[in-house]
Amino acid sequence: MSNAPLIPFPTTLQVRDTCLCLHAQRAARALARRFDTALQPFGLTNQQFSLMMALNRPEPPTMGQVARLLVLDRTTLTAALKPLARRGWVTVAANPDDRREKRLRLTGEGEAVLAAALPVWRALHEALEAGLEADADTLRRGLAALSR
What we know:
Layout: H1 9-18, H2 20-39, H3 46-55, H4 63-70, H5 74-86, E1 90-95, E2 98-106, H6 108-130, H7 136-146
Antiparallel strand pairs: 1-2
Helix pairs in contact: 2-6
């Protein structure tokens, strides 16, 4: 019986160094931490900021529209909305035209929090883009292509 590993260690190093999924996950976690820190004074996480920004539309979006945009299942979206609703920053209401459908809306207080946080988000975002070795638009296009 051999004690040789089924997968040689150099293969582990190759995966570590080349895996797009691993690199995307690491980058996403690092970016989320930076934005979480920047948005913390407003009582927001990066996820909450993105969710609230997704609600900033001329007409209140449906749960399905927001879930698709943020690539969340409805259960996860519902859980993410609860703390924002408790703070009075968003409302979830039945669509008057179709009671089965829920519409999501920022409240005035939610809009104010989002407006206060936006300059901080912009400043950090600009600093991150300026520090990239590659063109930010090329990076966005590549990430968008991978997310399809």
